Amino acid sequence: MPTEPTTRRRVAFIFPIYNEEGNIELLQRTVDEVTAPLAGKYDFSFIYVDDGSKDGSLAALTGLSARDGRITVIELSRNFGHQMAVTAGLDLVDADAAIIMDSDLQDPPRVALELIEKWEEGFDVVYAQRRSRQDSPFKRLTASAFYWFLGKMAAVDIPKNTGDFRLVDRKVVDELRKYRERDRFLRGLVSYIGFKQTAVLFDRDKRHTGATGYPLTKMMRFAADGIVGFSTTPLRMITRMGYLFSLLSFLGVLYVIGVKLFEPETAVPGWAFITIAMFFLGGVQIIMLGVLGSYIGRTYSQVQNRPLYSVASVRTGANEAAEDSRSTVR
């Protein structure tokens, strides 16, 4: 009796694009070469999300999609940020698994084969964990400090030295679509959701060309999203600091009373200490208000319930650009 043909599993790559004109052709060529040996076992597709690029990235992507029917190009109406671009790709993907990968070639496409291998072993999330990275000392130092601080503050266990480079099974994608918070920290969300997860170690390459889309200011904002989005520790710290300063104030009162009663001749009149204390406590109060403001601001943005992003067009294969008014998947 002839055996029935086995249905090939579908794997989709998601690439967020922002001013990556010089990387796009090489990226697609490299991914094609890497996945070619598995072409008989899997159906591969590629989703490029143009996040409001100001260079020729969109034109390059349009040329790719015209030549390759496996390529889909999502054009966002403006720059919404890396995490929103990845979210747009996840909202559109229709495959058994999705591989999220940056487009600057620092995430080596060859590692995708190891992610797929672990997925076939039964893991639902396979994240690429950096064993080494070819970045500046300042970048390595700040990244190390961020993951240390996040590990201390976050309420969920977020693996250190990981980015968004990972494979997620279809059921994980379906779960991620339910989470629509605006200040997104996807690697934290994936850890929060759970399922069977494992790591694949890799050595991160140098950026091929162009400038990073994450300068220091964006990195600091991104770090704040990770900490505030997955921890209420800063709020608890405010209460603890209040108790601490109340205790110090009480000890100060006891000290002043003791000096007045037992050694009045050593008491030196002056306002320096009082002035310094006022400025210090005023600064602490402002910091506390800033922490509260961060949480209140996130709440305000969320209750507005605006779409996470807006799609200008979707190009699939050799088809003409199709206007797409769906901005989110609810």
Keywords:
single chain; 330 residues; alpha/beta; Spore Coat Polysaccharide Biosynthesis Protein SpsA, Chain A; 2 domains; 10 helices; elongated; disordered N terminus; disordered C terminus
> In sequence order, what are the helices and strands, one letter per element?
EHEHEHEHEHEHHEHHHE
- How far do the termini sit from each other? 46 Å
* Secondary-structure arrangement, i.e. CATH architecture of the largest domain: Alpha-Beta Complex
Low-confidence stretches: 1-5, 320-330
Give the mean pLDDT.
Answer: 75
Widest sheet: strand ordering: 7-5-6-4-1-2-3-8
Biggest sheet, in brief?
Answer: 8 strands, mixed
Question: C-alpha Rg, in Å?
Answer: 26 Å
Number of domains: 2
CATH superfamily of the largest domain: Spore Coat Polysaccharide Biosynthesis Protein SpsA, Chain A
Please count the beta strands (DSSP E, at least 2 residues each). Answer: 8
> What is the helix tally?
10
Shape: elongated
Q: What percentage of amino acids are in beta strands?
A: 15-25%
Determine the structural class based on helices, strands and strand pairing: alpha/beta
